[in-house]
Amino acid sequence: MTLRFKVVIPARYASTRLPGKPLLNIAGKPMIAHVCGRAQQAGAEEVVVATDDERILQTVTDLGIQAVMTRPDHQSGTERIAEVAELCGWAGHEIIVNLQGDEPLIPPEIIKELAAVLDGQQQAGIATLAAKILDFEEIFNPNAVKVVLNKDGYALYFSRAPIPWDRDGFVKQPKHVSEKMPYYRHIGMYAYTVDFLKRYCQWESSVLETVESLEQLRILWQGEAIRVKVVDKAPAAGVDTAEDLARVEGLMRLLN
Fold first, then answer.
1. How confident is the model at residue 216 (pLDDT cuts 50, 70, 90)?
2. Which of 39, 49, 90, 250 is the 20 to 30 A CA-CA neighbour of 8?
3. Are 226 and 124 spatial neighbours (Cβ–Cβ below 8 Å)?
4. Closest CA to 224 of 181, 185, 190, 188
5. Which residues fall within 8 angstroms of residue 23, CB to CB, at 6 or more apart?
6. How far apart are CA 66 and CA 8, in angstroms?
7. Is the pTM of the predicted complex or chain greater than 0.70?
């Protein structure tokens, strides 16, 4: 049976560190064009850019890719995806992959793999990715979000703190991590069903979500399951700064 899924790419013009980021030129094309191309290569039956800026809308439309204007007052990217699903009239069982507009190097196979995790899933309406942490300094870096899984591959908790906490080991040797205990870094890509998105938009934010500044904790707070697929390697970092832009352009030219 053919895997069917859609990709929605949120793309905002405003960025504190890199204004107009989706429209910046990389190897002769705007960054958003590269991201859309990756989604198409993954086999998505529809690719939709969700934006709140006319310049991005016009650029994407000129490329022959579908784009929709969304409200500027969403509190999270998930809420923006839900608005797109409603505007497009997608059925409740449809699978949507949320792909960030600043990820021009995302491997297409990762996108497809994430959609496949949710296909036929009975327990969860949302899936995400994680990778084993190899650089142990990341475990103690609050910017690296960690996730702990149960035996079946569903999330128990996400945190910026080092989890699980090695009570005896960390007392004996602070910041020394036993190789017997796997630690996983969360990769912030999600796939959802449309029905899940409808439920999500009815929930208020939780205290856990607010304290950790992690929107996925709203889902666990509500008692819903999140399926986590562990991949061999985290994809290359996206574009947040001018230095990132130069790095990505250099890699693009090598690949081409």
1. very high
2. 250
3. yes
4. 190
5. 13, 30, 31, 32, 55, 56, 59
6. 10
7. yes
